[in-house]
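Final report, closing paragraph on structural work. Over the funding period we assembled a curated collection of sequence-structure pairs, and we close with a single example.
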Amino acid sequence: MIASRRSLSLFAAVFLALASPAFAGPGDRALDDVRILSADDMQGRGVATPGSEKSRAYILSRFAEIGLAPVGDRFEHGFSFTKRDGSTVQGVNLIARIKGSKPGKVMVVTAHYDHLGVRNGEIYNGADDNASGVAGLLAVAEAFKAKRPKHDVLFAVVDAEESGLRGARAFMAAPPVPRESIALNINFDMLSKNTKNELFVAGASPFPVLRPILERVAATAPVALKLGHDTDADGPQNNWTTQSDHYAFGEKGVPWVYFGVEDHPEYHRPSDDFATIPQDFFKRSVTTVVQASRALDASLDDVAKSTGR
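Its predicted structure, as stored:
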């Protein structure tokens, strides 16, 4: 992420991503998504910057490639917020949908695409935070496009998480579907870096109906999927309930599941670069969140009933 590091042209990257025959599974393509989104020419994807616009163009190209449909007549949903200095910032969420075989309840999959941008001449590329989560979301979208989900699934790639969950809160302030139809949020934020082969999933403690579903996924997951980080039992600093976009759903009474890794030395540092991602772990992490998303979709009616949705 240092400004002098290798810069990857967006157009060349898209060509390589589409042309390569090496994508044997969801993790292979997800790696390329992370590489492109965290390249220097995305400029750290700071909200309301040219790098943010460029990253949206790439994500929209992936929506088109997968064959996702918008909700209504557009993918881009703008919003604004006021910073502490009184200035107004324009953000943009990207929202797509795959219709399920059964009408009714909706599952929303989220990942934020913004990061810290350029600071003091250094690019904070945010490979793990959160190009990895966006790549995981796109992998889930590809899986559900290949095999239709039971329920409608919205894919919300949200902006301005680093500014206080602004994009997720804008989504919930004016959701593109009736709020009461949203039965569950699945949020991906930091999926790619852990030296202990561990991916955590939070949400089972506040929503006990999720525990047996997630435990079944963990039993066969290709990573060590651990349930936790959703109570104050180990100290408030280890409770992730408020730490990412799923909290905007929780504030409105929507159950959530959050997949992420614990903090690492590259967190919010210029060194959070594609070169520091353990690729095998990330591919297995992506496979895990795809499996979990399928399991949660299959049990969504039970989740909705148990949580009063």
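The CA atoms of residues 109 and 180 lie 16 Å apart. Confidence is low (pLDDT under 50) at residues 1-24. We thank the funder for supporting this effort.
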